[in-house]
Amino acid sequence: MSPKSKRTRAALTALVVAAGTLATTGAAQAEQSRPGQQQQQLRRPGLFERTATYPVFQNRPAGEDAAAGTVAEISAVSEDGRTLVHTDAVARRIGFLDITDPDRPRGLGTLSLARLGDAEDEPTSVTVVGQYVLVVVNTSVSHAQPSGRLDVVSLRDRERVASFDLGGQPDSIALSKDKRYAAVAIENERDEEATPPGRDEGDLPQAPAGFVQILDLGRGAPPAHWRTRAVALTRADGRALPVLAEAGITEPTDPEPEYVSVNGRNQLAVTLQENNGVVLVDLPTGRITKAFSAGTASVRGIDTADDGRIDQTGSIEDVPREPDAVGWIDDRYLATANEGDWRGGTRGWSVFDSRTGRPVWDAGNGFERLAVRHGLHNEDRAGKKGSEPEGIAIAEYDGVPYAFVGSERDNFVAVYDVSRPTRPVFRQILPATNGPEGLLPIPSRSLLAVSSEEDDAEAGVRASVSLFRLGRGTARTASFPGIVSADDAHGAPIGWGALGALSAVPGKPHQLYTVTDAAYATTRVLTVDTARRPAVVTRELTVKDSAGRPVGYDAEGIHARPQGGFWLAVEGGTGADNKLVRLDAGGVTRQVVTLPADVAAGLGKQGFEGVTATTDRRGHEILWAALQREAEGDPAGVVRLGRYDVTAGTWSWYGYRLESTSTPGDWMGLSEITVVGDRLAVIERDKLNGPAASVKRIYTVDLPASAAPDGALPVLPKRLAHDVLPDLRATNGWTQEKLEGLAVGGDGHVYAVTDNDGLDDATGETVFLDLGTDRRVFGRRR
How far apart are CA 524 and CA 499, in angstroms? Predict the structure, then answer.
């Protein structure tokens, strides 16, 4: 969470299958979790439900380019719970949102730090006390010359009423419950490119050392009467304090405090992330009362290789936890998010007894396996620090204490009941946009705000503030998760993601097949049970080449054959690489159908996107395949639907006219095809997401009775069957771009799914939709 190196970067349940239902359990918890944890009962049946996702670029100053970087990192809220304030280090400002109506947050504008100081000043944290916003500002000109201040800004008119020199480069701020104290971690972070004498590049120690700054607020005193007190974490001559050295702090002469939290006894906990330690300070006296190492952990059953496979057989051994955020559960126990920095990171979170400094609970592999189970595992980060739990917040709602733990890389917040601090119980998972950093409980209004620090205008995935309300919803009624996975034969959740196709399972009314695409090195056909809510991935089948070796196809379409086996539509890197692949029931490639040379020559990298099949009057299997975009040489705006007679080995083609778009960088294309009675249903979509998304539709065309004449491309009239955009927006999340899978199940329901791209240029959330009966969607009687 260091401001220069990090802040400036542009299932509701863990589920297992039991007795035909999904039960909330602690099965995804750590190997280190204590026995009996799974039997702990939760006090409240309600779940947090997402009410809105607000893209903060919409709150930019008038005249600013919409593509300019703008983020939401650390958030605070006014005492009435109606005005949210967040830092934006990228744009060097703080933002204000009206959340009076949590279903419709409204931008209230921003305050540029250039008004208060210099255009390069950077906000690192924020809190609110009474009518004042306390803004922590990094003003450092270099790592060797750290500086910062705390500005007190009127919430009413946004004028600065006081400012305090912090004496170094600040990071986080925390307010005591009685509002008598605020504490700021003065990190004075290391220069990752500097080399201390006798050490490696980026190593410690690097002077000057960090410390803690206490701001005495008094009892309702005006800001002009507030005073600061520094708590040194080293001796005046730079030597280590004995209390830190004896605790086993990695480099006690350069503590680098990171994150702060205050309990009900005005005891401050401050993490020393790079030094793998925690220091406790008595705020009234400024005395250090304890210091302890966060220790190490060994975690097994996780994915540790960036190899395109979700392989949960890896492990990390004796790795320093290196905690980032910290939060007091009560006056004795505190919890840390063990993101790690340069030497460690244990991919989970821990609970410590402040009296002994010892861990009493550790998430082990449980936190990372939540990501896998919910399709949020970021394979690109597997070889580094995995899910990177960065943020943590503790709050009590209706008498139940909750811990919220945010995954920086897998884009989710896990919610735990910590009624028994030594035995946390996983409750649900909340989806976020990219890089959730600020976790802001607002118990007075039963709300939780999550602010995200990653902003990618080019990919159209923007930083946001998401709001969640604690309600009476259940896993069956919630919009997220729409799909999760069961455990495999080894007890680990089946890994999944990048679902871009659907097909009914012949003879199984409540099952679908889906298939992974090029986001993963090996293609797998997954079986989905739709009788449960959320739907469950229950089985996986590895796809193999004709020699029986695992193979990686960019599978964008799947059709389960009544005769047995599958057809896959495989998109190629070039036109000639596109193919239809027939698999046997064991997933082995038995037949490959290529495109005609003239059609292949007109295609770029966007080719096959779907495949389905019918049987003609002679009993011949007829394949229907959709190309995504227009082929070169074809009429503008017309994309091809291919008809392939498997027995005759011949292609013929029909045209489909796409909608038009005037948005720069956008295009229209097809992303699925399936047979619905005497019609072909296709998904037509644009390339836009979030608030810009416009076209996510299902159209139908009449199923041609025979092949088109050679060389012809007759355009089939289309009819709108269903606009899926309202269904996607009804999740109150970031509207996903890639609506790609469509099927009519054997139960007569129409299902659709979005491709999460394996979290590459995407939030990672998969939306799995039951759109209702085929009669409702297509006007068709069964």
Answer: 10
- For residues 497-513, give the mean pLDDT: 97
- SS3 of residue 217 by DSSP: coil
Contact of 310 with 759, CB cutoff 8 Å: no
Superfamily grouping for domain 15-470: YVTN repeat-like/Quinoprotein amine dehydrogenase (2.130.10.10)
Instruction: Label the pairing between strands 389-397 and 358-362.
Output: unpaired
User: What does the pLDDT read at residue 46?
Assistant: 84
Q: Rounded CA gap, 270 and 211, in Å?
A: 10
Per-residue confidence (pLDDT) for residue 1, from 0 to 100: 47
* Residue among 757, 1, 14 nearest 365 (CA): 14
Give yes or no for a contact between 102 and 51, defined as CB atoms under 8 angstroms apart: yes
Whole-angstrom CA distances from 46 to 80, 317, 331, 373, 474 are 23, 38, 26, 21, 7
CATH 2.115.10 fits 496-778, yes or no: yes
Determine if residue 602 is left, alpha or beta; phi over 0 gives left, psi from -120 to 50 gives alpha, anything else beta: alpha
Q: How long is the chain?
A: 782
Query: In which band, very low, low, confident or very high, does the pLDDT at 780 lie, cut at 50, 70 and 90?
Result: low
pLDDT of 513 reads 98
Eight-state DSSP code of residue 550: B
pTM of this structure: 0.94
Which 3-state string (H, E, C) describes 136-170? EEECCCCCCCCCEEEEEEECCCCCEEEEEECCCCE
How far apart are alpha carbons 485 and 493 in whole angstroms? 6
